[in-house]
Amino acid sequence: MEAQLEDSVQNHERAREIKEFDESKAGVKGLVDAGMLKIPQFFVTQSNDDEMSASSYIHIPVVDLIDIKDTTRRKNIVEEIGQACEIWGFFQVVNHGIPQEIMDEMIQGVDRFHNLPNKEKMEVYSRDVSKKVRFYSNIDLYQAKSANWRDSLACQMAPHPPNLDELPKTCKEIIVEYSDHIKKLGEILFELLAEALGLKSNHLIDMDCAKGHVLVGHYYPTCPEPDRTIGITKHTDPDFFTILLQDHIGGLQIYHQNAWVDINPLRGALVVNLGDLFQLISNDKFKSAEHRVLVNRAEARLSVACFFTTHYQSFNKLYGPIKELTSEDSPPLYTETTIEDYISYYNFRGLDAGPALSYLRL
């Protein structure tokens, strides 16, 4: 009885602290700026020492997209991407067509936003998923077992982009410009992925897989106790795929063959990782890999993730295993779902609740 009462008191205190943190609208950076030396208990992550170790000697594939219009070269690129998606679910691309100065400015734009005075950032702080532009900390703040040491600026850029005046003044031009580049690259990758699955190059685009994308600028502040929390807990992405722009700090890791592998920043490269929806439509031919982000004491980390998904914009289109990839010997492994329903379920569970795709498995 006493133990139950103690748990009740602790749960009440935790709920109060989370609510207070959320209502401050200052995010994790607000805690750091206030000089906090000990992280709040609701950020503390329970993990064992083995989970914290990682290998820097294994590297995910790097695919060079140069001369992609050359027939022989394109065939080699498709084979490389297919192998990467079967084995890793992750790869990096270089010579992808996005100028380095555009990528640098995108990182700088996200940095400018997150370093604005709290009063200015508060104007776009929201947990309303219907808003096209919003600043928040931890999309699953009220569901997760432990909060992550991260703030985010999310912008739904397609298929129905926000008005220019809805975007933050400090980075609106570069968000639009970078988003346009990412849309073109995304369509190229959907063609290559379709070919890697043995489909016609326009198959996935005709399925509207490339119809939407959400740009999220993450900020991982310096952490006074980096061994007690994490930037993003182990998870898979609830989209078709994600194109990630990293800064030079590092901290991204992929879980591969029962070990964590560092994805060290490579200047000029973009990281591509498949999401749950791609694993679903490929009927497990390609994998959605678990990954996480560590934080550090010395320097803040920035990244820009572009999630190819229509997100909460409802279109009622059902996605399931592609018929051309199924047969009597390889029957469908998943039931169909809409993107909106899947993401709602994914966020309701929280990032640290384990693989969400399993609930659609037949």
From TrEMBL:
PROSITE patterns: FE2OG_OXY. GO terms for molecular function: 2-oxoglutarate-dependent dioxygenase activity; L-ascorbic acid binding; metal ion binding. It holds the Pfam family 2OG-FeII_Oxy. The keyword Oxidoreductase applies. The keyword Acetylation does not apply. Keywords: Iron, Metal-binding, Oxidoreductase, Vitamin C. SUPFAM superfamilies: Clavaminate synthase-like (SSF51197). This is Oxidoreductase.
